[in-house]
Specification:
This protein is mostly helical. The chain has 11 helices and 9 strands. Helix 4 packs across helix 6 and helix 9 packs antiparallel against helix 10. The radius of gyration is 19 Å and the shape is globular.
Amino acid sequence: MWLSLFFFLLKNSCPLVVNTHINITSAFSAPLRFSLYYLSISFLPVIALAATGGSIDAELAYGQQSALTRGLLEQSLELGTRFLLNNQREPGNFTYEYDFVKKRFNPSDNQVRQAGALWGLALINQFEPSGEVEAALIKGLNFFREHSRDTDDGGKFIVYPGARKGATGTVALTTLSLIEFLNSSSVQSNDLRDFYHKELDAYIRFLLSLRLENGQFFSTYSLSTGKGIDKPSTYYDGESSPCAG
């Protein structure tokens, strides 16, 4: 939702006014951890600047009211994009979390937030395509495809490394990433378009298999059978509904 709002503001240059007061010194005196997922859905200028070692405008640092201008949004997007690209791992997923105080990466992981970071890249690629972002997006899509299994009826579900059961939100956000990728100018050849359309159709078919009679979705599924397990989640319902139509 926040990333969609970000692009709405950028496209329409909305004259929104926000209070950007963040005391950086105070924040760094306590354990401060920053998840890539939250960067991908917010692109907060101060956090992005701090994370990349950039300078922070005095008006932001000292808590003055600052108009949310197109220039500020574009700078925030550029810095947030660079942070995501720098933290993509070789397999294609992302560094989950970094502790700025202890200066170390958190070894934990979250499959849904990994897919959320990928969706962030897909939206960036659609808004302002570049070869670097496109390559990172394809690398991420390949990661999730390599960790997917096919169902007997032509569906496809994700088996995230180390997970004990599948999360519906992971499949939904990967599906949204494919939708944005196919809606971008990146996919030029018919063969490539056909390939990713088949991937998209397979993920959507699986999501439909998780949909309940009331329109909600099982929140998790078995990694061995792909059958839905746990009761619905409002988060995953919101991510899955746009995909299932």
